[in-house]
Amino acid sequence: MFKSIRWKFITIYFLLVFMAMVIVGVFLINQFEQYHLGVVRDNLTQIANSLRISLKDMDWQKNKEDVQENITYYEKIGMEIYVIGRDTNFTIISSTNLSYLNENATEILEPDLILSSFNGDPGEKDIVPKEEGLTSSKNMVFPLYDEHSRVTGAIYLRQNLEEIYNTLDQSINILIRATILALFITIFVGYFIAKSVTGPINDVTIKAEKMARGDFEQVVEIKSDDEIGQLGNMFNYLMARLKSVLQEMSNEKQKMDTIITYMADGLIATTMEGKVIHANPRALEMLRIQEKDILEKHFDETFKQLNERLTIEYLQNSPAKWSGSQMIEMEYGITLRANYAPYMNEKGDLDGIIVLFQDVTEYEKLENMRKEFVANVSHELKTPLTTIKSYTETLLEGAMENQELGKQFLNVIDNEADRMARLVRDLLQLSNADYQQTKWDKKEVDLNYIVEKAVLNLSVSAKNKEQELNYKGLREGVSVWADENRIEQVLLNVISNAIKYTANGGCIDVSLEETQNHATIKITDNGMGIPKEDLPRIFERFYRVDKARSREMGGTGLGLSIAKQIIDVHEGMIKVDSRESGGTAVLIELPLLQEKMCN
Ligand code: ADP
């Protein structure tokens, strides 16, 4: 409590007033004493002078009574006067104190003063005894001369100073009491003055403490325009600014948190010491790791096994330094691209690294498919071209002369040109559909009729392979909303595949059924079938189980892709069910026309 400014103020006031009172008191008492002693001195000097004049022409050794008479008067005014003769005994000739008459003056009075006066020097001495009971006095001595200016004696005057010192003691007493009173008043007034100064400061301090605890609703009441008022004003301004800045920061942080939490990419932030300070939910999901596990572990510990180039230890020694990109192949078939960059502190020093994870699995897959597709197209075009080129060269080199051989060669060239044309046509069809360039001529068609037509179309091919191609249709028409030619193309592709991949003498069954809202076409063969592992990829462009065989049969590897694309546009479904050497069943589902469904 005594450390507070209030008490410091009071102490300072107290000391100031105390010092002032002591200085004034000492000065006053001193002056008072000097003044009174001066008055006594003047008084004694005056009396001595008048006595010296009256005693001058008198033979006072002989007229002791006259002398005694002269000084008796002064007894009444409380003064002691001694006339001392110039003899060896320093005899007191007359005195206001009759009991001292004829005594040796040096034994009663101050001897040094008496001796000096007989040498012609007047003297003065104040006696202020230290012991109690003794009285203080002023002693003055003046030599007496005869007409030849010889010292004949001395007048010794003694004035009791008790009264003056009593008055002085009383004055000191009064002054001490006045000082004590003044000090009490000082403490009292000082307390209120200090309170008026420290009160607002305390108010600001208390409110600043509340502000530090996060309560920004504090307002300091301004009671004056002085420095303390300005302090309060400044505090209020500071509070308002701080509140708005913190609000802005909190809004920004919230925005940032929301963005980081819901962003499609994963984000991890680590310090240079490897302490992971943030990992958003997406990052945890991508890395399949628990938040507490990643936060507890060193950054390098988590990432070393995923890609050792993505560790602080590696980056510290790598020339490319703190920003770049690394790929991570996760065990569970996901590919992540990790882009990393450093972040700095306010001094511009490296503080840590932020790593952004992107799931590029799909992108990688597409990229691989694109590469594979380009390689496939090039290969598919190159093979017939090489054949055409070599046969043409052989013809030009003279094979033409042999008509039979020439015709055979030209047939091969024709077949290969057809295959190229088919390939280009199929590719164009796929690409047109990809880019929505295909014009679909959709209308109400009878599916029964289309299947029948396709089966009829291919019956010659089946016959050539001595295969049985059966169609089990429906008596009445099955109405679907479709592009007739495209659906026919699908059926031709699928049925011709069944013929192609079924040995001679095999059996192919085509059926059409109608369920509640779908028409289902089923094409079943008892051919070579498709191995289980190839089934999921059967609809990919250029995917073939046995490339050589397919090519030999005139296939392009695009038939099923085109079929699926067409069926998808018709909002239908195509599915292949097969077993290696156990035949294949292709299921095509198309939605029935709405009106029909209503009936
Ligand atoms: P292709 O022009 O090679 O026939 P498709 O896209 O029509 O191309 O078929 C892709 C691959 O699927 C074929 O190469 C073949 O290996 C396999 N396939 C398709 N249909 C059948 C089937 N009915 N029986 C056995 N394999 C089939």
Automatic annotation (TrEMBL):
Its main location: membrane. It is a multi-pass membrane protein. Residues 195-247 form the HAMP domain. It is found in: Cell membrane. Residues 376-594 form the Histidine kinase domain. The chain crosses the membrane at residues 12-29, 174-194. Keywords: ATP-binding, Cell membrane, Kinase, Membrane, Nucleotide-binding, Phosphoprotein, Transferase, Transmembrane, Transmembrane helix, Two-component regulatory system. Signal peptide: none annotated. The keyword Methyltransferase does not apply. One of its GO terms (cellular component) is plasma membrane. It holds the Pfam family HAMP. SUPFAM superfamilies: ATPase domain of HSP90 chaperone/DNA topoisomerase II/histidine kinase, HAMP domain-like, Homodimeric domain of signal transducing histidine kinase, PYP-like sensor domain (PAS domain). It is an enzyme of class 2 (transferase). InterPro entries: HAMP_dom, HATPase_C_sf, HATPase_dom, His_kinase_dom, HisK_dim/P_dom, HisK_dim/P_sf, HssS/ArlS-like, PAS. The keyword RNA-binding does not apply. It catalyses: ATP + protein L-histidine = ADP + protein N-phospho-L-histidine. GO terms for molecular function: ATP binding; phosphorelay sensor kinase activity. Its EC number is 2.7.13.3. PANTHER family: SENSOR HISTIDINE KINASE CPXA. This is histidine kinase. It comes from Alkaliphilus metalliredigens (strain QYMF).
